[in-house]
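Database export, one record per block. Field names are fixed; values are copied verbatim from the stored entry.
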Amino acid sequence: MGHDVSVLSEVQLRKQQISAAKKAAEIVTLREWYDSTVHGYELEEYFKYFSNLGRLGKELHKRGVKRVTELHEADNGIFVEATFIRSDLDLVGSLCALACIFEKLRKA
């Protein structure tokens, strides 16, 4: 049982290290980025056409924006969440939002 406690401590330590590294590098999910960023016209317009950030995430992926981590549901491989470098999202997030809008209007 003492072994389990030391393993748990190692796991907790590793989680703390990862959390600190993410914070230092400003690794965020799309939702964290959206919730903590002042938005311009592009993202306000995006939400007139889309109900969540899923389409924006797909557009970022399509445009080659690097995902730092990806989380998939183990049983069926469904994509759940990704993290990005905040500065990458700051740079291209609004442009990708516009691309989503233009694609939606083009298909309408």
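Remark 1: The longest strand covers residues 79-85.
Remark 2: The radius of gyration is 17 Å.
End of record.
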